Amino acid sequence: MPTAIDITAAGDPQVQPRLRYVRRGIYDPRRHFKAEFRRRIFSACRQIGVNHFPIFPATNHLRVSVTFNVVRMNKDIDNLLKLILDVLHGAVYANDADVTILVAKKTQSNTGDEGAYTQLRVEKV
Prior knowledge:
The chain is α+β, with helices and mostly antiparallel strands. Helices cover 23% and strands 32% of the residues. It contains two helices and six strands; from the N terminus they run βββαβαββ. The strands form two sheets. A four-stranded mixed beta sheet has the order 1-6-4-5, with helices on one face. A two-stranded antiparallel sheet has the order 2-3.
């Protein structure tokens, strides 16, 4: 089992929008994006030889460091983080309550969409 994992996902980071309550229940406007990002997380993990999930069991204390390289700086960093933490739940860690240290940084892409990415590192404390 690794003590740290590094993942980089290309593309402009997305924010976590609010859930909408509709007549038939709850609508999550980003569920398709979350599913696609989760697939990328699993794929990146398998490329480094990790095949069991979640990677870190529920008893760990974890540090999550995230760098968002965005096209436009108008995205709130807390909403960017909500989406990432939601996607990592179940794939990288069993429970987001295990995250005891959270470090986030937002920078602007100099090359537009081609240079936008989300880079994250999850490690045991």
